[in-house]
Amino acid sequence: MKKNLILLFLFAITAITFVHAQDFEGTVAWTMKMEVTDPQMKAQMEAADKQMKDPANQAKMKEMEAKMDDPQFKAMLESNPQMKAQIMNMIKAAQGGGGLSAMIPKGMNMKVKGTNSITSMDGGFMAHMSILHKGDKDITYSLDREGKTYSILPKSTDDKTQEKVDVKVTKTSETTKVLGYTCTKYIVKVTPKDPNEKMTAMTQNIWATTEIKGIDFKSLARQRMGNSQQNIFYEQIDGVPLKIDMTMPQGNMEMLVTEIKKQSIASSEFDIPAGYKEVAQPKY
Length: 284
Description:
Elements lengths: L1 H16 L2 E2 L3 E12 L2 H15 L1 H13 L3 H8 L2 H15 L3 H5 L3 E7 L2 E7 L6 E6 L4 E6 L4 E5 L7 H4 E14 L2 E12 L9 E8 L5 E2 L23 E9 L2 E12 L14 E2 L6
Parallel strand pairs: 7-14
Antiparallel strand pairs: 1-11, 2-3, 2-13, 3-4, 4-5, 5-6, 6-7, 8-9, 9-10, 10-12, 12-13
C-alpha cells in the first residue's frame, strides 16, 4: 500500500523537479491534494489510522520518544541514520494522529537556479526527503535530511519502455488562469500495451502557460525516473505547467502552483550538505 503511494508521489515530484531553467532563479511553491479511490488501499489506510490512534500504540510511541534522550540509545541511532529517521517518522506520525492525514503531503517547495533544482515536501511521509537535481552534472540525488544521508537516483536503462506503453497527448482549446497566467489544457494518457505489464495506467490534465520565460519544460521529455519504469512524455507540451490533475487506479491527485518568486539563491543550496553519508537507493 505504502509502496504504491511512494511511486505515485515520486512520479509526480520528478515530473516537476526535472524542469530545466534557462535563466530563471527563484522559488516555486505547490499545493498538493490527494483522494484515495482504491477500496483496498483505502481500507488499509483506515486500518493503519485506527491502529496508530490506539491508546496502547500512542503510549508506546511516547515511551520511544522518551528513550531518545538515553545516551546509549542515542549513540546507537547516530551510528544508523536510516533507523533514526524511521523512528523519528513513526513518532511524528503518532503525534499527528497517523493514518491518511499524516501520510499525504500538503505541498512542495522548489528552489531553482539555472539547471539546478532542489524540491522538498511539505508534510506527509516524505517530509524528511528532498530531491536534488544537478543539471550541470546530469545527476539526481535523494536526500534524507533527518538521517543525513543521500543516494544517487539511477537513470533508467530500459530503452524499450516507450515500446511498452501507448501515450496520447491532446492539446485542447480549454484555458484557465493560474496566478494571472493564461494556461492551456493538455490531456496526457499513458496506458500499457500489455495488460500483464506491471505499469500503471495514468491520465493527466496538465495546464501549461507560455507566459513565463526562462524555464525549459521540454527538457523534461528527456528525463527518466530511476527504477519506476515510467518514461515522462511531455515533449508535445508548450510552456510551463502550473496545474496538474492526475488520475490513477490508486487515487486522484491535484497539484497547483501557488507562488512563483524570482530571487537570488546561493549556489551552495544545491550542494549535498556536509556530513551526509552516501547510502544505497531505497527499493520501492
